């Protein structure tokens, strides 16, 4: 999965998604289907208890170099330094925040997180391995 074919220096124009972590299969990294008690991977058939599901970063960006626009998605632990925590811990913090604040609308915490990510990334130049 880490077969970098080239490097691209580009600026982030926008964030394309508002969900930066997802429950991921530990075998194939596909999105897990979660219910209240269990998880299931539709790709490889892995199952387990929902509380044991692991999480992974997924950040979709629109970027631009000097001549072109690109839609890219950045996955995994390379985003840990930008968020300051692993995807597992970020998901736990979001859940804890919603529980402690009595927030029933996940949009509130999501909105604050989206604003922080936009501030961190939009207008900044990065080197992407593609």
Automatic annotation (TrEMBL):
It comes from the Eukaryota. One of its GO terms (cellular component) is cytoplasm. Residues 9-95 form the Replication factor A C-terminal domain. InterPro entries: DDIAS, NA-bd_OB-fold, Rep_factor-A_C. Pfam families: Rep_fac-A_C. One of its GO terms (biological process) is negative regulation of intrinsic apoptotic signaling pathway in response to DNA damage. PANTHER family: DNA DAMAGE-INDUCED APOPTOSIS SUPPRESSOR PROTEIN (PTHR35537:SF1), DNA DAMAGE-INDUCIBLE APOPTOSIS SUPPRESSOR PROTEIN DDIAS (PTHR35537). This is DDIAS protein. It comes from Smithornis capensis. The gene is Ddias.
């Amino acid at each position: 999965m880490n077969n970098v074919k080239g490097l691209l220096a580009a600026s982030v124009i926008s964030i394309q998604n508002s969900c930066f972590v997802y429950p991921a299969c530990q075998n194939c990294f596909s999105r897990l289907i979660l219910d209240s008690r269990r998880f299931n991977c539709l790709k490889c058939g892995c199952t387990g208890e929902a509380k044991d599901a692991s999480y992974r970063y997924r950040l979709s960006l629109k970027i631009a170099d000097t001549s072109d626009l690109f839609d890219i998605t950045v996955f995994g632990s390379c985003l840990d330094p930008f968020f300051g925590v692993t995807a597992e811990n970020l998901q736990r913090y979001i859940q804890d925040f919603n529980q402690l604040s009595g927030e029933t609308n996940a949009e509130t915490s999501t909105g604050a997180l989206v604003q922080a990510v936009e501030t961190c990334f939009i207008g900044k130049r990065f080197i992407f391995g593609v």
